[in-house]
Structures
1.
Amino acid sequence: MDEQIKCIGCGSTLQSEDPKKSGYLPNSALEKALANEDSDVYCQRCFRLRHYNEIMPVEENNDDFLALLNSIGEKNALVVNVVDLFDFSNSLIPSLKRFIGGNEYVLVGNKIDLFPKNTKESKVKDWMRQESNRSGLQPEKIFLVSAAKKRNLEDLINFLAKKGKKKDIYFVGTTNVGKSTLINAIISARSELKDVITTSKFPGTTLDAIKIPISEGHYLIDTPGIMSKNQLASHLTGKELEMVAPKKPLKPATYQLKPGQTLFLAGLGRFDFLEGEASGVTVYAERNLYIHRTKLENADAFYQKHKDDLLLPPSPEDDLGPMKGQTFSPKTKSDVLFGGVGFITVPKDIVIKAYTPEGIGLGIRRALI
Ligand code: GDP
């Protein structure tokens, strides 16, 4: 190609050979731009960024991203950490602690719409506070919102508007927590912002940013989502995620179990009832997820026999490791957590063992319901 045009978003020379390289635009669009002698052409990536507020995610240990976090620590900023309430432990960013510096830090728990209607929000916040303190993070405030359903956004938006008068606001989060959905919900709630989204790069890095003016001289800045190996979303295909990620509020399903029985949550979770009185345990997961009850003594054989048919997902291609378990003996009614899949409410004074692939997303909390 003799003629060269540059993307007006990122300045890269437009090309249609390699979608992975900068400046990519499908051939048809590039030819059209050349024929029309367009002067305002965006590469595909900048186009998506501008129109859908999508920023390319980064790996956990991306040097540019660590440098970016570091630079936030040196500023007077507000750090807003968006987390997925349904996969909380995997959406916390432990390294954030080192980078916040003396900055204000708040947590926004997203996807509250998935929790059953009778969930007490104060209990959810208590649990989030305990967990984040355990990771060395001390949020000043905790918001519970649903970006998708536009619930509880007003408090957060007012808070951001107030803080944004004095400082920049950085949104950070792992991928799939709903950060872009939330940013878009905030923009659409403030109609004056609709057309003023500006995209840019963080100085000295290859990272994209979305900068939304929030007051005279201050911005709300969306940073790239961090891909964590511990998130199911990083392993499952889009279709599998559809099967696992609930779309509607979780509906309880109670199973009467006695010691020596096992429940499988497809191939993504296993729950062994080891000791205690026969009791009801309540599963909260996507309604169509395959749940199978069997005898503990047959569980290993059942898993080996059916992991590639009944117990899907995950499929062998998903590259999730073997099931690893953790034993819990709660002293109060508790929720055993299977991050990204759901939780099982158990009575006190029983002993159970919970498994997930590689043990990711396992945890326990005081029962929320
Ligand atoms: P990002 O990677 O953090 O930017 O996440 P996205 O905004 O792309 O959202 C990830 C997934 O979570 C998508 O499937 C969204 O539809 C879903 N999602 C986002 N916000 C909510 C929410 O408030 N409730 C529910 N149930 N799902 C949500």
2.
Amino acid sequence: GTVDIECDMMVLGAGPGGYSAAFRSADLGLSTVLVERYSTLGGVCLNVGCIPSKALLHVAAVIDETAAMSGHGVTFAKPQIDLDALRAHKDGVIKQMTGGLDGMAKARKVNVVQGLGQFVSPHHIEVTAADGSKKVVQFKQAIIAAGSSVVKLPFVPEDPRIVDSTGALELRQIPKRMLVIGGGIIGLEMATVYSTLGARIDVVEMMDGLMQGADRDMVKVWQKHNQHRFDNVMTKTKTVGVEALPEGIKVTFEAAEAGAAAPAPQLYDLVLVAVGRSPNGKKIAAEKAGVAVTDRGFINVDKQMRTNVPHIFAIGDLVGQPMLAHKAVHEAHVAAEAAAGHKAFFDATVIPSVAYTDPEVAWVGVTEDEAKAKGLAIEKGVFPWAASGRAVANGRAEGFTKLIFDAESKRVIGGGIVGTHAGDMIGEVAVAIEMGADAVDIGKTIHPHPTLGESIGMAAEVYKGVCT
Ligand code: FAD
């Protein structure tokens, strides 16, 4: 067939993985085509994920903080919420960020081809634009970064009062009663926004606790501080029926454990389904390129992010958990560098996780609960923020900072922080783990006082094994 564009590198998908891969490829001298079906770059993260959610969470945090100021002797008037203006602000943030990516692509001469890409051979992809016109791109190497999509529950009907995370971020209405199905990070971040804007929230979660993956002692601190947001937190509970009635969305539940009592059915004004994301591996005709896709839609890769077809790489949500933007970006750089002939490998020891709730919950490496479950010999240092002058001055002393050490080597292998700005601080623990730091390295590093970040140094000092 005819070929419209030839390139060294074709990147499929322009999320954090794809744009990072395309930019690095171009920087390394490869002529690069970036295929994206949507009109803006940035993928899920910039358009309907990380960035818009944080724009709304910032507003929620300011509203909550000003309300708390009455306890500090300053009282603000009740906030007036102009939903249209708030939405416009959030959309403006997205526009600024995606527009910035356009400029970066142009500066690097990355050729952005808009349309739905489907492989037609191991060296060709066909891109169908919205108007139906087609272009064939021939490539020497490729990086697949097609990302993931929301998981739908089969029994949930179509109704404007039932949304996924994308719909929730559109902020069409502030309901009186809202149900969040799925007590993971995304569901709880949106619960934070909607509750601060005035909704009463219920959460239903199949597992025995919210925010799976984080240590229970951290989640407990978050949950205590957030009790006021929730009418019902239903754990170990399955959602088994969702019905769109004129008077509301009727939701029926079942206990996840046999014999346990189920909560009564409830009526809601808005239901957010946030039960996870599934990889887009089956939607790109990967088989035409000979690329193997698992039953669940993931693409397996080696340490250089190569698929079973050596000149085709894959990165991001599509290659496995954790589905996080910073993992995608890191993998993108490995893939692009390997494609350019560098000896690059994905050898990160840890990938941090952050719930941008209030307080934030952040963790990295081995968690205490995981160590217990696996019988690992660990020791820990915990610094309660009640002893942090800065946290007390902020009126936010509920948090703590915890470091996990290998009992034998005394090196730090994990850490968790619950408290305001935890997400901004967890990177220090990640650096310490990657560098093989021990408690002395961290504890004897002079941290500025008074900061929340010095709680990391204090947690190392508290740890008696080394620092006496
Ligand atoms: P994606 O961002 O999914 O991008 C894939 C791109 O490929 C899309 O633009 C898609 O249109 C395009 N594409 C797919 N198939 C084709 C095709 N056949 N042809 C053309 N184009 C195609 N992560 C964090 O690290 N921090 C957060 O705070 C955070 N918050 C989140 C909040 C929400 C509400 C959601 C939903 C996710 C959040 N995430 C967060 C996860 C983060 O968005 C993803 O991990 C990240 O976007 C994955 O990047 P990616 O490049 O793998 O894929």
